[in-house]
């Protein structure tokens, strides 16, 4: 099993194609080789002419904790090259940034979810490379959520930094496959190279997307485990609510909710009454926690934790987006007047509710709030979108 970066540093024929060219690296803390050497260090050791580096949201070092916490540009202390921030004064590479290299190596570990901003960073890089006549090489990495797709399609006009294009929440692609789709969908005239993985089998045991012999490293501060990566396409919706997603604890974004004024056992029972089939593929456990920061900081919260791992994980049955939607529906059923939706600036969107930005439209929120709507209504809507998305991406998939 080889990731794209491992192939580049071990295959001389690939590296020779970079001879005489200035190279930039887009990376974060999870951009490492099989031997846990950071990609920047590995490329320099192989005498690749790295002239700049770029950090996405949370920074090249991965030190920025929350959304809309920006990173500044800097000079790398070891190599003396500029490190440009793509989550600071700008989120789209500027002309000056693009002038720093001829080939841009994109080596970001994704979570397989549309809202994870590295997807949009990839699109912006491809668009600017097309304008500047630069090359983009995607050093491919696994989608830890595997190949299943889930969720409603983002609606036209609902694009944002967490919604690059009309795709579903759990997109089922690697970044290399996504790059191919972006180029086709947006008709980009850009030199794109996908350095494909070798030996990756999404959807197959034992790893189901993530190879068991590879160490998990946080691609962002709150992406602390494979369990989180699998659940994220659902639990990320908590960011648009008043409910805690577990930030300020050691297991962020692995809970369906936490709150000081919600009875988790009652919610779990109501979920089982409404749509038990949506609860398959994982274990759900009542838990208690007190966040040290963020929502409900210093307050004891009752919640439900998801275990999409070990003996409890069924890769083909687990549907995190529906599971999270079901938790919202159960809370609304038990607490009709609960102030569920959080109204605040979310990823530079100021005029829409965060939950709508996250879902690429109001459909999920409207379904939760409609006392007459049942699980079949949401399932019908999502199933049609999922089928359409599978058909759309089929020509761009690389791995069986």
UniProtKB/TrEMBL annotation:
Molecular-function GO terms, alphabetical: peptidoglycan beta-N-acetylmuramidase activity
Sequence ranges assigned to domain Peptidoglycan beta-N-acetylmuramidase NamZ C-terminal in this UniProt record: 231-399
Domain of life: Bacteria
Residue span, Peptidoglycan beta-N-acetylmuramidase NamZ N-terminal domain: 23-226
A Pfam family of this chain: NamZ_C
Family matches, as InterPro entries: NamZ, NamZ_C, NamZ_N
PANTHER family in the record: HYPOTHETICAL 460 KDA PROTEIN IN FEUA-SIGW INTERGENIC REGION [PRECURSOR], PEPTIDOGLYCAN BETA-N-ACETYLMURAMIDASE NAMZ
Entry protein name: DUF1343 domain-containing protein
